[in-house]
Amino acid sequence: MDFKIYNTLTKKVEIFKPVKQGVVGIYACGPTVYDLTHIGHMRKYTMDDILKRTLTYLGYEVKHVMNITDVGHLASDADEGDDKLEKGALKSGKSVWDVASQYTDYFFNTTDALNIIRPDVTPRATDHIGQIITMINKLLASKHAYVTQKAIYFDTNTYPNYGMLSGQNIADKQVGVRGEVVTDPDKRHPTDFALWFFCVGHFENHTMRWASPVGENDGFPGWHIECSAMSMHYLGDQIDIHTGGIDHIPVHHENEIAQSMCAHHYNNNEQFVNYWLHYDFLTVDGEKMSKSKNNFYTLDNVRSHQINPLALRLYFMGTSYRKPLNFTWEGAMSANNMYTKIITQAMNLQSGLQSNLASHKSDLWLVDEKYVNDFKQALCDDLNTARALAVVFEMLADKNINDADKYTTLIDMDKVLGLDIEKVVLALSGNISNNIIELAEKRKLAKEIKNYKLADDLRAEIETLGYEVIDTTTDGQDSYKIIKKL
Ligand SMILES: [Zn+2]
């Protein structure tokens, strides 16, 4: 089944083709860790998670890299104002390093609560200054960058395709940013952006500092360069999918493309990133949820409204990622009701199965191919999560499927939904998961065919999962009992 996705670069829904067959590299722009993350951010990271889970479900091997910005992101994305981390440190009276570590922990606590699988690699900008400097040196050597008293800038006029992502030509873009305060008179064009700031003038007392690629003064990297340096370091020169919020299209991602394309030699038709994926905002009263507008809600606010954080996943999935989603507490509450409904039904299905354990046959417990296929079709259609959810409910309501298959199908679909259904059901009911029962059944079979080595291996596997199998005899027949290890 072809996976189709809207590519901001071509402005079309395209059939996804990875650079290397069967493998997908995803680079997701990550958080700037200077303050509490909020659920507006979580819409983006949940969609990254759904994207990753979908590709895995379709059989791809996924490598997911997400950066952590802990230096160089100024108050404005366009090189103006203070460094957000330094500002956060000043506000809290802590060191920049403590601020970064505290809010990184808060970020991951939040994503864990939403059952967002942690990326395979989460590189921090401050750990990759070497890679950043190497890239800046390449750009200086090839005259795509120039040095002023204050900074090293990328010269946007040296890259003819600058503006291709947002669809604006460079002249229009320069008019667009001309009104902004330019603090460096030696900057050549308004669209040029800083690759590196020197610790002079306004930044004289900047705490985080390193030896600069040129000159005597210490300095620190600009924001955009970290994503180019780290994405290529971990995923190679050609990246399959790069994600971000729609606010990254005109500046951050445009700049990433320019510096990556100029720092490397690409053949004709080769791109730094093949598919650019952008998520629309979570809004409050029609405005983007953000720190600067002070209209944001955190995980703690969600919990204090008695809403299960996992229900937010259902809330986000109800709307296309390409449309804004207006957050209301009523909306969150109805997602919470939907979540409770799914868990309740899953518990009923599961307890029915447990009481019929004696008649359990391994030809039961099958996924329903038709519904799984419909579910995949929906996800393959530009991640149509709303339709995928509709398929889940249709399947749960279908009277023609037996309970065992229904439960198995739901648990299978949950690999993408990420509601942690089986774990929640088992925790609430104290029952034993299908997976353990399957292993025990296999072990019984292995004993019957006298493959004792396999039987022992299966027993060991069950034990590592926290259970023990005890052999029994029922009516003269060999049987077994599974108990949870204390
Ligand atoms: Zn980025």
Automatic annotation (TrEMBL):
Its EC number is 6.1.1.16. The keyword Protein biosynthesis applies. ATP binds at K291. HAMAP family: Cys_tRNA_synth (MF_00041). Residues 374-425 form the Cysteinyl-tRNA synthetase class Ia DALR domain. Its main location: cytoplasm. Belongs to the class-I aminoacyl-tRNA synthetase family. It comes from the Bacteria. It catalyses: tRNA(Cys) + L-cysteine + ATP = L-cysteinyl-tRNA(Cys) + AMP + diphosphate. SMART domains: DALR_2. Its cofactor is Zn(2+). Zn(2+) binds at C29, C227, H252, E256. This is Cysteine--tRNA ligase. Binds 1 zinc ion per subunit. The gene is cysS. Monomer. GO terms for cellular component: cytosol. It is an enzyme of class 6 (ligase).
